[in-house]
Write a sequence for this structure.
């Protein structure tokens, strides 16, 4: 997926260990009562060092952005969000050996959810969910 060397993976792991956030997006299941989609892990990092975020952005082939908020001292914040399941899964598998106990546990939780998502897709969950969404859309359309 990404062409990273072991030192680059170790650098990413160290950065995310100290500054990263490993989150779990559960909006789909909370927003839609009929959603069977597993939760979606993501990785997020925000900091004032643009050169560090730019380097991470290059390594991960992912653009970073500037949120509108500034720090309390008026410094610009730079943020990078990785939400694509395949990329998150690939990256978490590679950085896991470098993580400490607390972050490692969160990475393990994210990897477990991503594995559940892959199994859900293989069982036809995505197609089933799309089919249900199309049926609901048709029911909401006005009849001629």
């Amino acid at each position: 997926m990404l062409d990273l060397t072991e030192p680059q993976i170790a650098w990413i792991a160290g950065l995310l260990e100290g500054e990263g956030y490993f989150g779990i997006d559960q909006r789909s299941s909370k927003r839609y009562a009929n959603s069977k989609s597993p939760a979606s892990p993501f990785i997020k990092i925000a900091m004032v060092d643009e050169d560090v975020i730019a380097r991470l952005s290059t390594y991960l082939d992912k653009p970073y952005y500037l949120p509108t908020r500034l720090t309390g001292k008026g410094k610009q914040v730079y943020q990078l969000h990785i939400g694509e399941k395949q990329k998150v899964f690939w990256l978490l598998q590679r950085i896991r050996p470098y993580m400490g106990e607390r972050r490692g546990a969160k990475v393990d939780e994210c990897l477990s959810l991503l594995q559940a998502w892959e199994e859900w897709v293989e069982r036809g969950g995505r197609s089933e969910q799309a089919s249900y969404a199309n049926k609901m859309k048709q029911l909401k359309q006005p009849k001629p």
Notes: The mean pLDDT is 88. Residues 101-122 form the longest helix (22 residues). Residues 6-140 form a domain with the Endonuclease I-creI fold (CATH 3.10.28.10). The CA atoms of residues 38 and 105 lie 19 Å apart.
